[in-house]
Amino acid sequence: MRKIQRALISVYDKTNLLEIANALAQRGVEILSTGGTARHLRDAGIEILDVSDYTGFPEMLDGRVKTLHPKIHGGLLANWDNAEHNAQAEAHGITSIDMVICNLYPFEATVAKPDVTLPEAIENIDIGGPTMIRAAAKNYRHVAVLTEANQYPQIIADLDANDGCLSEERRFELAKEAFAHTSQYDTAIAAYLAHIDSQPDEFATDLTLHFKKERTLRYGENPHQRAAFYKTETSPGACAAWANQLSGQPLSFNNLLDLEAALEIVKDFEAPACAIIKHNNPCGLATADNLQDAFTNALECDRTSAFGSIVGLNRKVTIQTANIIREAANAGVKIDAIVAPSYTDKALRALSRVKRRPILEAGSLSAAEPGSQIRNITGGVLVQDPDVHDLNADDLEVATSRAPTEAEIESLLFAWKACKHVKSNCILLANGTQSVGIGAGQMSRVDAAIIAIRKADEKAKGAVLASDAYFPFPDGVEIAGEAGISAIIQPGGSVNDAPVIATADAYGMAMVLTGVRHFRH
Q1: Angle made by CA atoms 269, 271, 277, in degrees to the nearest 5
Q2: Which of 120, 139, 363, 378 sits at 20 to 30 Å (Cα–Cα) from 324?
Q3: pTM of this prediction?
Q4: Which residues pair with 2 in a beta bridge?
Q5: Could you confirm whether 279 is annotated as catalytic?
Q6: pLDDT below 50 — which residues of the chain?
Q7: Which CATH number fits domain 395-513: 3.90.550.10, 3.30.1380.20, 3.40.50.300, 3.40.140.20?
């Protein structure tokens, strides 16, 4: 056990700082401090010694140099079990510093501002703080280093239980957290600077990722798999990872994946939209004049598959929508979780009657452009731009003798936007702006078409069809024609485009080409 006799406190985030500072002061610990932290402590009646008085050297260069001094770093780095270190420290008037409480300038929050300038970002790169933290963490056998406000209660409890001392085991745990803290900070700086003056099509030469553990999950995709949930240090905008859970049981591994899928789909639509997700695929999707109709229409696509589903909505949920969802549940449709931008009080009370069902509030969906997508493979990661390609009626190339009607174009554009969220190979059928049949994740496109048409049943007649990639052979189009599909949207580009288009003409279908593929692996 090592007794804490002198502590250096220099923080940007002063959350709960007075609690630990008072605990130290009451034990007679000498407190060194600087700048705004020193004023904050003095204003609270806590006696402190300015670092400049301790070192005999003033703060300078607009505060860039405050703690970078041998009396500070000698006190942090000295091995007090080493006689030579003790002799050198005594010769130069260096005394031990047993605790450092330090957190850093808010670099990530600063660069997250849309109008941040490079000089502003540079000024928020902390130098003295990380230097002190790393020095203290390196010398954890003699120094305790605190970098987060949530550490304070445990340290206060330890000091109370051990007559002002901290165990080496505790100091080692704090050191590990400190190095993780500075590593994440440096990663954020490197990532920001790497994109300055870079070309839009360039990816970083070195990729360092940092996520903070939110919690351990009960299990992963299956009960025999361990799992944990990590998230970014700052919110990237509306997303499942940062959504506020308002009620229900803790989220599972699969819940989080499906909630993310649901939210990303409904973000894509300007009109009121509902996505019903099962195993990371929509089993129903619709837009309408209001959320309750969007939900009802999405559910009509495949009520059977909607059992045990996740519902995503892109508008504030009112009591009218909540009642429609409850009616579906009373009719046997089990909904495992719901995510939306917000809820009225009445809607939340109504939906929360199912105590175990998680209800998540994502906030405004008008978020910043999505960042790069990253996926793990064994021994590496893959990075790509998100699939944000959009098109309108003017972008469509009519390939058949018959051009689509205005109503068909509206439905084709809806189906095209929807199909990019379905696992490949994907065939999606729609009537208006409502999916009526979805064939997802098939190894052959013709099988995906068969499944979508079977699920649509009689609703396939007069529906439009979206294919996320080209038809390699005419068979899928022939099946669509036999089912009464009226129009098709697909990328085109197959060596068999001519017979594929001819088959559409033979059935009187309109076919438009996008020139863009929407694979989703």
Answers
A1: 55
A2: 363
A3: 0.76
A4: 166
A5: yes
A6: none
A7: 3.40.140.20
Please choose, from the candidates 338, 343, 328, the residue with its C-alpha nearest in 3D space to the C-alpha of residue 359.
338
Q: Do residues 73 and 65 lie in contact, with contact meaning Cβ atoms separated by under 8 Å?
A: no
- pLDDT for residue 421: 94
261 HSE (CA, 13 A, CB side): 28
CA distance 433 to 412: 9
What integer pLDDT is reported at residue 369 of this predicted model?
Answer: 62
Residue 483 burial by CB count (10 A; 0-12/13-18/19+): exposed, middle or buried? buried
> 462 near 431, Cβ under 8 Å?
yes
Distance CA 262, CA 161 (A): 49
Does residue 33 contact residue 8 with C-beta atoms inside 8 Å? yes
Q: Which option is the CATH number for 239-361: 3.40.50.720, 3.30.70.1120, 3.40.140.20, 2.60.40.1180?
A: 3.40.140.20
Tokens 């949930």 appear where? Answer: 229
Helix pair 17-26, 152-161: axis angle to 10 deg: 20
Locate tokens 């770093």: which residue?
73
Residue 180 is predicted with a pLDDT of 86
Q: What are the structure tokens assigned to 277, written together?
A: 């997700």
Q: Where are the domains of the chain?
A: 2-194, 239-361, 395-513
DSSP for 242-264? TPEEEESSPPPHHHHHHHHHHHH
Choosing from 14, 69, 138, 210, which is the catalytic residue?
138
For residue 334, indicate whether it is catalytic: no
Euclidean distance between CA atoms 439 and 426, whole angstroms: 6
